[in-house]
Structures are given as structure tokens and as C-alpha cells.
Model the fold of this input.
Amino acid sequence: MNEQEAIYFDALSRDRAESADTLDKPSMRGVRTSVVEKYSDQAHFIYELLQNADDAGATSARFVLRDDELRFAHDGTRRFTVSNPATEDGDSQNGTLGDINAITSIASSNKTAESKIGKFGVGFKAVFQYTQTPSVYDPNFRFKIERFIVPVRIDADHSERQPEETLFVFPFDHPERHQAEAYDDIYDKLRSLAYPVLYLTNLKVVSFECSGQLGLYSKRVEKEIELSNTMAQLVTLSQANGGDQDDVLEDKIWLCTRTSEGGHTYSVGFLLSDDGKLESTNQPASCFFSTKEATGLNFLIHAPFLLTDSREGIKAGEQHNRDMIQLLAKLAADTLTCLKTLGLVDDRIFDIVPYDESKFGDVDSRNRISFKPFYTAMKEAMAREPLLPSSDGFVTAEYAYWASVPEIAAVFSNERLAALCDDENAKWVFTSFGRDERIRSNPRLAAYIDAITKDWYDHDDVIGYITEDFIEAQPVEWLHQFYKYVAEASSRIKLIRIKPVFLSQDGKAVPAFDDKDQAVLFLPTGDSSGYETVNSALLENEETAAFIKQLGITPPSLKDEIYNKLLPQYQDDVDINTGPHFKKFFQYYKECSQTEAKSFVALLKDCEFVLYRSVGESEQVYRGKADTLYFPQESLRQWFAYKPNTRFVEWEEYLNLVGLSNQEDLRSFLFALGVKDEPKIFSRELSEQDASQIKQTWPYSSRDWVRKWTEPYIDGCQEIIEHATSDDSFAACTMGRLSSPRMKLVWLFGE
Done:
């Protein structure tokens, strides 16, 4: 030390001796204890020594633990200083307080910037848990501290100090702590330091030697990328804990760092697994070193927080700390894009991203710092940015779809999803796990993903959205995959029965059955004309062919032929040979159930397929609707003798067609279709004048707005009357005035 430094040092020694006298008083002894015992964990001073070494610009530091003492040395370039003890108050305020002044004080510090959080004086005092006479060997100063705060010169340098090193020696001479206890505490601490160099600016290597065992902590920057205003470093942290030298533990961490407008450096760190993926870690918040402030996050955070005196907690209610949390939260949210660029965002992202809002306290609490801003900022980023992982890239929330089970996304590619939902940008996200499983195992995560995606689809949805165009656009290879997927569950099989999911012989998408469960699609046969049959390419795959048969698709039956091939012909006015049709209609009528027969007959009634002859055209055969025809009984022929356009069914031809043994069934069939065996009774509306000529009063309802008069009449009756009264003079004098058939009958036969 130079002459001025010697003067200041001696003055400081005298000043501290006076203060020590005060501390030695019984009434003040608790002050010393409260300062020394601030830290709940033993040997916390190890961290204090490392931080001060980093502040001194050291790149490496070493510990040597002996049975009776601990030595600590670093290669820092900033040397110890001493300042005038008479001006300590001002020097402490403006940052010019000497290191020796600080290390021998109780509350004064030579660190004024918030980026140097912590007091050298208080932090260093933790060594007094184990020693009463710590010594410092610096190129400029050599001294020991006695009576807790009194610096005393040491004449000779320490033999173990390397050139340009600063060496600390802590003899285990505490009267209340045995040397063995001190050794064990420090030994355990040296072997279990938590990321001791990760957040330090200069210090890269920390080594220790314990009873012949060597240990090492080191930091190595493998890669460095600057993205916007963020510095991303891939850091390898190595740790050899003093055991087998081959047993070296390595942690790889992507450390993303920013500097605030106030010059404060803050970071978020993401641990990598052995396979290079993001891995969760529940480390407490750090302020250069680990605190005991649990964050509820699964990644590392570091900032120059204002800490409690014990350095274990972050002060709540401090605006500086709230500002740091907000900056860290935004950094964490922005870093998601950085991680995506680095190829680290996949379906395991929720091992990292906080999704359970209930884990975080109120941001306005003054009792405990809240880390909820991380949840808020990162959720907003997940919903806003293209961060949601798909099988072929990333997508924003507005185009993100989540499958209820992974199998759906595996079968329906992103391109097929886009076609189904008519959104060319649509993609499946989080395809390695499905919504159904997450609802059961982690409902909070399921709710979170629902909030950051557009929609979720289950089996009903994707099958429900299938259209003809969709199926026709698919290659046959995919259709085989699709049918295999459907065949795995009866519920899916039920869904596709009436969906157009099969290719027909001409490449059109058709369903297997209609909405009445009538077969629409058939297996091809020798004569498949008139039917929709399964495309032969589908039947070339054994699994698909088996599924098609399992679904109930068969070669066309008689019913199939009637419904799909014969009946459609009667919708057009074309020439049809109805004989073979009639025989098949009759056969099916006999075979089907009463319920089926009823609906079947209802369809046939609208078809003009029954052959008939008119009374006046005995040689010409026509086809018409059954309910316009009569059975060709002799009595009916006589009755309709004067109505030549009356239609009689070709009974004899049909009887020959189906055989005499089916005579009763044939009659029953024709009768069900509407063929009559007695004259039909019709009804016609009368004018009021005609009605009054028949009778004076007619029943009517008072609720009728308009009165109506109707009379029943028998088909063919009018023609009989007209024939019976065909005498010209009779007709002229009488029948001309009788306008209705009923009036004429009354005139002929009486009332």
C-alpha cells in the first residue's frame, strides 16, 4: 500500500476498534449475531465470495478446503482499496467507499447500482459463522480482521497466493463451532452449488479441492445468436463434484438476455434434456445466485432484484422488482419465437409454458411478489404468434385445430383438414396428444389449449364434414387407410353408413345406404348395369374388401334391383317391357314383411306399370296406374258396357305370368295396388240450383264460410242412364231439364 493508503488503513483500524468496543458491550452483542446469522442455509458466504470475485473482474476462482481452514483465491484485476474513514457516509452514497472500509463495516456498502444488489459488508459477515480472524492477501494489501470489524496488517505474504491473485484465508477458530462441523458444512456446500457461474459476467471457472478430491464448476458458451434485442447463448455448465473425475455432470441451457433502459441485465434460461429438447426445471428465482423465492415456472429467471436482508426472498411491493418481473415476462414471451427459431418448440412446450393460472398470486399483492405476468404474457404470445406446433411447421391460433385423439390427425393430414373445414391455412396442432386424454389427465391444460386454438374436432366432426368432392379427390391408397381407421370403432362405422365415402365403378363418391337404410351401393356382379357398384380398385385391398362386406354391402338382391334399377325407370316417359318387372314386383310383395309391403305398395301406386285394356279397344294393351283399373269380371263388363274408356286389368296374362297357384296372392297384390272389383263411388260438387231440385234442405255446418252441395255418384251410372233414356222425343221433353245423374235416377226409379 502507498503512504496515503497506509494512513487511511491505520485510521480505519482505530475507528473500527472503537466500534468493536461498543459491539463488545453486553447490550450490543445481539447486533453481531443478527448480522452473522441472516442466512438460513450454512456456508452461504461461498456465494458472496464468488459474486465479489466476479465484481473484481475474475475469470477463475478456487477453493481449498483443509481440516482447519478454507482458502479462496481469484484472479480478479480490481484490487482492494481503502478510503478515508472520516468521509465514509458520503463515499458510501457516491460509490467511492473503499473495499476494506466496506468489508469491516456492518451496513455500509461499496455497491450502489441495483445491478450490484447486496452489501459487501453484510454478505461477507457470514464467514464469521466459522471463523473469527479471516485474512485477505491482495497485491496491495495484506490484513486480517479481528473482533468482527477491526482490520489488522499482516507483514508477510501467504505462500499459497499466486501472482496477481487475491487470496482469502478463513481459519476454523470459531469458539462455538468445531472444525469438523465447519469442514462438513463447507464441504457439502462446495459440492452442491446451484449454477454458481451461470449469471456472472466474468467468472467462468470455479474449482475446489477437498482432502485431495478435486471439483469444478465451469461455464462455456457453445453458441451465440442475437435476435432483435435479445442475446441468446447456448451455455454448457459442467460440474465435477469432487468424486470420480470421469463423473462430470453437464447441463445445457439456452440463456436469453436483455438489458433494460436503466442498464440492468436480466435473463430467462431454458434447460435442455439429453436429447436436446426443452426440459422443465423448478429452480427458484435468481439474483446472480439462487434465492428461495419459488416462481411456479418451469424455467430459469434472473434479474437484479431487491432482496430481503437474508438474500432468500424478493421484496414485495418494490416497484423496481415489479418492473423486473414485467420485463422478464415479456422476455419469456418473446423468447418463445427465439426457441421456435432454434427448433425447440414442439408438443412438449407445455413442460415449459405456464398454463395453470391458479398457481400464481395476485400481481397487486404487497405481501409476496407475483409471477403471474409470465402466465399472461406467454399466453398472449401463444394466441397471437405462429407458435403452435403442427406436423409441418407452426400456425397461429386462428388456424389451429386440435384433434380429440391423435389418430384423427394421423389419418387426416393438414391438407385434408384444410379441405374438410374449407380453410386453406388450417393445421392440426399438438398432434402427439389428444384433447380427450388431456381432459381426463390435465383439464387445466386442456382448457388452456382450447383458449389458444380455433376449434377441436372429434370423429363425428371429421366424418361429418366429408363430402363427395373430398372423397373423389383422394388417392385410393388413402381411402384404404381411412376405411381401416373407420373399421376400428363401431361408432365410426355407424357414422359412415350414409356418408358418400365409397368410390363407385365410375369414380363417383356414393354412400353405402340411404337415410332409410336402403342399399345404394353393391358389390359388382356379372350384370351390374343399373346399379352403383364398388370400384374394383377398393376391392383389391383385402382389409378394405373385408370392411365393405362387414358393412353389409352385398351383390344386389331382388329388393335392390327393384328399388335401384326398376322403379327409377318409371320416373321417365320411356318404353318399358313391364311384364318381367311385374313378376319381380309380385315376388317381392309376397316375400317382404307387412311393414315393407305397405311402403312398397305406396311406391308402386305412382308407377304406370299395370297392363290393361279398355272396353272399347279390346285389341290394344296399355299400361297405367293400378288404382285406375277394374278386375275384368263379367258383371263389371256389363255395368261398364256403355262406358267404353273403362280400364280392365290384363288378369289372364298376369295369371299366366305368375301361375294358377298364385291366383289368390295375385288378386291380393292387385287389390292392394288399387284395382277394384266393384264400381267406384265418386263425389261431385253441385250448384245451389241443382241441389234444390233434388231436395229442399241440406245439412251444413255453421262454421262453413261458403256453403257447398255435393252428391256421390257411381262410376258408369251416368252412362247407363243416358243409354236408357236415349229416345230423342223423351230426352227432348224431359231429360234436358235434369242436369245431374242423381236427378235422372230419381226420375227413372223414384226417390
Remarks:
- The two ends are 153 Å apart (CA to CA).
